[in-house]
Amino acid sequence: MADPTTGPTADPTTGPTADPTTDPAAALYRTVALVRGFEQRAVELVRAKVVLGGIHPYTGQEAIAAGTCAALRPDDVITSTHRGHGHVLAKGADPARTMAELAGRTTGLNRGRGGSMHAADFGVGVLGANAIVGAAVPIAAGAAWAFRRAGSDRVALSYFGDGAVSQGVVLEAFNLAALWRVPLVLVCENNGFATSMRTADTVAGSILGRAAAFGIPARTVDGTDPEAVRDATAEAVARARAGGGPTLLECTAYRFDAHHTWEHTARPRYRTDEEVAAGRARDPLEIQGARIPAAARAAIDAEVAELLDRAVAFAREGPHPDPATALDHLYATGMRARAGAR
């Protein structure tokens, strides 16, 4: 596939209008645009104090979510991270209910109880985002093991960051996944930083070397190119379905925004404006947008903007949970808060 930064691009004035329901390039662009727009709206809602506590923006990494999920079937499953909105949306969750979940409303994916870092939607195969670094990997490994035991060809895919590759639970999951040859795709989103520490200062050896230690095939992928990510994921998924076991993909990208919206106020200085500008030079939105006609891109942008307008309105209008129900779904015994508790 030609790199739009060096090779031919879509003719902006000719050619048929690409339909995202039938054209793979347009479909990938729509997902990238949806995730980018969603994150921008979510940041606005944080500033408006509609979303409390802040979020971890995914801006700049959209190609990874779009490309990986494009290679999955609807019945495959994913587990996600604290920076998981993009994964949840790319797998098919409703943007309006996802936004309502961030806002803590009962109309959200999880009735407002999961929030930004714990969104789940079993209906589309999202087993859950997870705020604990690396904790989603063994969950996906367990799901993959269950698929293998059942004789199914379903696949589990788990996202984790470069800061998670030295977590014991991640390496234990690598070991069991390789030992039992489970249908698992491991996606390391290497954005260059574990919060504010550079990967080079936190990872001894290499990320690919960790997979090699367990006999897991691994490769590095350009995580700013949706089609490169999709194609690499498709190979890993095909291997998993055929009984070949797990594969690790290290998807390299650059986080355009803050690690957490807290930085918008505190403004820690761990990277320069010049570095961020250089990182923005490879923008997944522009890379994929160059592959479809300008008319198609404009139509998709308009459709996504309208969709997100409705999502924001839906989130704002949804009711907050009743504090008296705080213990609902928490205890198997059905224990409830005492009457009048707030």
What's this model, at a glance?
The chain has 342 residues and is an alpha/beta fold. 41% of the residues lie in helices and 9% in strands.
Question: Would you write up a description of this structure?
Answer:
The protein is α/β, with parallel strands linked by helices and 342 residues long. 41% of the residues lie in helices and 9% in strands. It contains 13 helices and 7 strands. The chain has helices spanning 24-47, 62-70, 85-90, 95-102, 136-149, 168-180, 199-202, 207-212, 226-241, 263-266, 273-279, 284-289, 294-317; strands at residues 77-79, 156-161, 184-190, 193-194, 197-198, 218-222, 247-252. α1 (24-47) runs parallel beside α13 (294-317).
How would you summarize the topology of this molecule?
Elements: H1 24-47, H2 62-70, E1 77-79, H3 85-90, H4 95-102, H5 136-149, E2 156-161, H6 168-180, E3 184-190, E4 193-194, E5 197-198, H7 199-202, H8 207-212, E6 218-222, H9 226-241, E7 247-252, H10 263-266, H11 273-279, H12 284-289, H13 294-317
Parallel strand pairs: 1-2, 2-3, 3-7, 6-7
Antiparallel strand pairs: 4-5
Helix pairs in contact: 1-2, 1-13, 2-9, 4-13, 5-6
